[in-house]
Amino acid sequence: MAHPDNVRPLKIADAAHATRHVFVRDLLLDAHIGVYAHEHGRTQPIRVNVDLTVIEVAHGDDLANVVNYKTVVDNIKALVDSGHLNLVETLAENIAAQCLEDERVTVARIRIEKLAAIPNAESVGVEIERAKSLP
Q1: Residues forming the active site
Q2: In what order do the strands lie in the sheet with 19-31?
Q3: Mean pLDDT of 61-84
């Protein structure tokens, strides 16, 4: 269970705090995920959404000055490709932890949806929000 100091509201593009919002919308992947026997040994479609609160530490038209959304996506793909996970919650936590490794990212909100898990439901899943611990 998350500690209370690890959950704070996502601040999206807040001028007063010099933050920007970096996001990934509707990333569709095939994942080895699920606890049930029929979910093992095969992939199933998932949708991933990521929202990051990023502190602006440098300006200028240089990729090194920003959190690169391609890197975020590549890291998510590597996590998904790393092997079977039982829970979408585990994948969400792993993605959040990876995003928070970047010193500029202060809050990560992750939504994972399984798109074919429940008949007659467009999707089921989880959304989490994690933040760096306050000093």
Answers
A1: 114
A2: 19-31, 44-55, 105-114, 124-131
A3: 94
User: Residue 55's closest CA among 86, 11, 20, 89?
Assistant: 20
Residue 130 bridge partners (DSSP): 108
Contacts of residue 100, defined as CB under 8 A and 6 or more positions apart, other chains included, come to 108, 130, 131, 132
Q: Say which residues have a Cβ less than 8 Å from residue 90's Cβ, sequence separation at least 6.
A: none
Chain centroid, CA 13 distance in Å: 18
Strand, coil or helix: what is 45?
A: strand
pTM: 0.88
Neighbour-count burial for 84-123, b at 16+ CB within 10 Å, e otherwise? ebeebeebbbbbbebbbebebbbbbbbbbbbeebeeeeee
Contact 46, 52 (CB under 8 A): no
Which pair of tokens denotes residue 131? 């933040």
